[in-house]
C-alpha cells in the first residue's frame, strides 16, 4: 500500500523503477539527488508526497507527461532542459509515454524543508510558513538545468570540495524557487561585504584544514554568519565563491609541497584532501596548465 506521505530518502521505494544513482549515503547536506532512466511508458503511477520541494529535470529523451489535477489531467510535452516542480506534501498520480527512441533520463532533486524555510526567513520578507511552492508540469528553466546537471558529477566525483558546491547550490535553488515558483513575490536583500578581519579568520581556518572536507557551514560559523548570508557575502567581498576559494587554496598548498618536499603525487593529493590522486592531477592540470610532476620539474 502506498502511503500518503513519506520522506525524500524513502521515496526511492515508490518510484517507477530504481534510480541509477542517488546522493543518499554519500552527501549529508540539504539536498537529495537521483539520476534516473525512466520506463518508456507508465499508464498510471501514484507517488506519495514529501515535506520537501521536489524538482525533476529532463536530461534525455522526450515524453508526453500527464498529472491528475482533481477530475482532469494536465498534459505537457517534456524534453531535455524542461523542469517539473512538485510542492511539499503533494500526492501525485502521473502517467507518461516516450515520444522518441532515446531513453527518458531525469535528475530528481529534493530540498530539505527545514533548510528551505530557514532560507525563506533569512530573505527577510514575511512569515516563511505563509509562502508556498506552486506545482509546475513542464517549464524551461536554464538556471535549474545548469545547477542540477553540475550537481550530479560534483557529488559523484572524488573532489573534496564537491559537497561545498552542493551546499552553495542549495541556497541558490531555494532562492530561485522562492522567486519563480512561490505564491508570493520574494525580494532577496543585497549581499553585504564581510570585514577584513572575518575574511582573514575564514582564510586561516581553511588553511588549517586543507586536508579535510571543509564545509560551507563551518566557514559561515567562523565568520559568525548564517550560511545563507555568508555564501552571498563572501562572493561579494572576494569575487569568488567559497567553493572556488577552497579549491584555489588547496592548489596553492599543493604547489608549495611539490616545490619544497619530495612527497610523491599521491601523498600531496592526500595532504590537500583528495583521496584520488588521478582526480587531483586532473584538477591540478586544469587550473595550472601542467601536471603536478611537470610543475615540480619546472621549478627545480
Automatic annotation (TrEMBL):
<dbReference type="InterPro" id="IPR020449">
    <property type="entry name" value="Tscrpt_reg_AraC-type_HTH"/>
</dbReference>
<dbReference type="Pfam" id="PF12833">
    <property type="entry name" value="HTH_18"/>
</dbReference>
<dbReference type="InterPro" id="IPR018062">
    <property type="entry name" value="HTH_AraC-typ_CS"/>
</dbReference>
<dbReference type="GO" id="GO:0003700">
    <property type="term" value="F:DNA-binding transcription factor activity"/>
</dbReference>
<dbReference type="InterPro" id="IPR018060">
    <property type="entry name" value="HTH_AraC"/>
</dbReference>
<keyword id="KW-0805">Transcription regulation</keyword>
<keyword id="KW-0804">Transcription</keyword>
<dbReference type="InterPro" id="IPR009057">
    <property type="entry name" value="Homeodomain-like_sf"/>
</dbReference>
<dbReference type="InterPro" id="IPR050204">
    <property type="entry name" value="AraC_XylS_family_regulators"/>
</dbReference>
<dbReference type="GO" id="GO:0043565">
    <property type="term" value="F:sequence-specific DNA binding"/>
</dbReference>
<protein>
    <submittedName>
        <fullName>Putative Transcriptional regulator, AraC family</fullName>
    </submittedName>
</protein>
<feature type="domain" description="HTH araC/xylS-type">
    <location>
        <begin position="200"/>
        <end position="298"/>
    </location>
</feature>
<keyword id="KW-0238">DNA-binding</keyword>
Amino acid at each position: 500500500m502506498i502511503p500518503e506521505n513519506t520522506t525524500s530518502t524513502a521515496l526511492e521505494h515508490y518510484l517507477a523503477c530504481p534510480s541509477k544513482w542517488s546522493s543518499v549515503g554519500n552527501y549529508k547536506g540539504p539536498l537529495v539527488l537521483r539520476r534516473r532512466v525512466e520506463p518508456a511508458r507508465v499508464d498510471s503511477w501514484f507517488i506519495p508526497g514529501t515535506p520537501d520541494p521536489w524538482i525533476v529535470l529532463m536530461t534525455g529523451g522526450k515524453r508526453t507527461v500527464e498529472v491528475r489535477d482533481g477530475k482532469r489531467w494536465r498534459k505537457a510535452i517534456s524534453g531535455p532542459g524542461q523542469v517539473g516542480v512538485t510542492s511539499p506534501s503533494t500526492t501525485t498520480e502521473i502517467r507518461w509515454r516516450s515520444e522518441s527512441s532515446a531513453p527518458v533520463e531525469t535528475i530528481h532533486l529534493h530540498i530539505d524543508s527545514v533548510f528551505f524555510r530557514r532560507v525563506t526567513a533569512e530573505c527577510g520578507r514575511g512569515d516563511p510558513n505563509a509562502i508556498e511552492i506552486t506545482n509546475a508540469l513542464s517549464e524551461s528553466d536554464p538556471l535549474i538545468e545548469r545547477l542540477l546537471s553540475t550537481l550530479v558529477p560534483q557529488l559523484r566525483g572524488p573532489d573534496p570540495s564537491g559537497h561545498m558546491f552542493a551546499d552553495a547550490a542549495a541556497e541558490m535553488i531555494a532562492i530561485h524557487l522562492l522567486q519563480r515558483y512561490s505564491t508570493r513575490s520574494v525580494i532577496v536583500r543585497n549581499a553585504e561585504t564581510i570585514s577584513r578581519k572575518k575574511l582573514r579568520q575564514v582564510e586561516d581556518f581553511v588553511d588549517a584544514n586543507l586536508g579535510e572536507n571543509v564545509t560551507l557551514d563551518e566557514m559561515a560559523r567562523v565568520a559568525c554568519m548564517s550560511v545563507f548570508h555568508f555564501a552571498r557575502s563572501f562572493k561579494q567581498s572576494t569575487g569568488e565563491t567559497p567553493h572556488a576559494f577552497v579549491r584555489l587554496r588547496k592548489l596553492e598548498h599543493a604547489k608549495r609541497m611539490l616545490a619544497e618536499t619530495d612527497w610523491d603525487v599521491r601523498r600531496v593529493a592526500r595532504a590537500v584532501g583528495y583521496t584520488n590522486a588521478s582526480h587531483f592531477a586532473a584538477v591540478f592540470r586544469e587550473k595550472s596548465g601542467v601536471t603536478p610532476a611537470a610543475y615540480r620539474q619546472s621549478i627545480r
